[in-house]
Design brief:
19% of the residues lie in helices and 28% in strands. By secondary structure, it is α/β, with parallel strands linked by helices.
Length: 301
């Protein structure tokens, strides 16, 4: 018998078989990256203005300039600035050739095609976002194992990444054992109880974005439990039993894992409820066996 923390440490060290799939970034929310992702371009990809204002070539003491045009975000053609010239520029617009600084519009007085400002408000290189200052092409922007969030999706899109390799969500079999278990919607017979654990585990798994869930109900018969586990391991990545893991005359899950050559990781924890919790592995697949009591199931899960 081990502690809950010891059990967690064992599980965290497992080397699991992980299948990889490629998804569009818009469909990858909640998945985990299987490989590091690199930027496909410099960000920003061109020098641009960080402010609405006026772009010009800075010279010490200069405070009056000729206005020769305008640059908005997305502008493809811009005039080349000469000495003593400036261009009206907006946030995100590319810097024109010959300009190296931007002064905020709030600091400028305009009279026709002339502008003037206090030289102390003009700083060389001010309010310019230079190419590659956020990241360079080839820089790692997200490490393997990172969870994909809306923020990361935005970052990926901004550097030209359209698709990402992610770990496929595991296929899970939930096996409910017990002759007394009756499905919802059917009439209870003498000695029967409704299947509470199946719907509860289904809800928990779907909350974790698992959508390939095989629900199986098996009677308290040794051969049936052994064969059901063999099929479940063949078709799924994770198997979860409820019930049948204690030491009663009709508890056959321990026999099933042994006859299917499952390696035991631990059995029984120092916790209540949920003491008879079992964990094992076989060929990169994991098997959990939880007690049958619904409170114990939720505690163990």
């Amino acid at each position: 018998m081990i502690s809950v923390n010891e059990a967690k440490a064992i599980l965290q060290k497992l080397e699991l078989s992980r299948n990889v799939q490629v998804l569009p970034i818009s469909s990858a929310q909640g998945f985990f990256l299987a490989k590091p992702i690199s930027s496909q371009l410099d960000v920003p990809s061109f020098d641009n203005s960080a402010m609405d204002g006026y772009a010009f070539s800075w010279e010490e003491g200069v405070s009056q300039l000729e206005l020769v045009g305008e640059a908005a975000a997305g502008a493809a053609e811009l005039p080349k600035l000469g000495k003593g010239q400036a261009i009206r520029i907006f946030t995100g617009a590319p810097m024109p050739s010959g300009a190296d600084s931007v002064i905020m519009q709030e600091k400028v007085e305009r009279n026709g095609n002339r502008i003037r400002f206090n030289p102390e408000d003009a700083v060389s290189g001010n309010h310019v976002r230079y190419r590659g200052t956020q990241c360079k092409k080839g820089d790692i922007i997200a490490e393997a194992g990172a969870k994909i969030t809306p923020g990361l999706v935005s970052l990926l899109a901004s550097v030209g990444v359209k698709e990402v390799p992610v770990y496929r969500v595991p296929k899970v079999a939930v096996i409910i054992t017990g002759n007394e278990i009756q499905d919802l919607g059917n009439k209870l017979q003498a000695g029967q109880i409704y299947n509470a654990n199946g719907p509860a585990l289904d809800s928990w798994l779907r909350k974790l974005q698992v959508d390939e869930i095989q629900a199986i109900k098996v009677p308290d018969q040794k051969e049936a439990v052994v064969e059901t586990l063999a099929r479940a391991l063949d078709q799924n990545d994770l198997v979860i039993f409820t019930g049948g893991i204690s030491v009663g005359d009709y508890d056959f899950v321990k026999n099933a894992v042994e006859e299917n050559q499952v390696e035991q990781l631990f059995y029984k924890l120092k916790q209540r409820p949920g003491k008879p919790l079992y964990a094992g592995q076989k060929e990169g697949k994991v098997i959990f066996a939880l007690p049958g009591n619904p409170g114990s199931v939720l505690s163990c899960f």
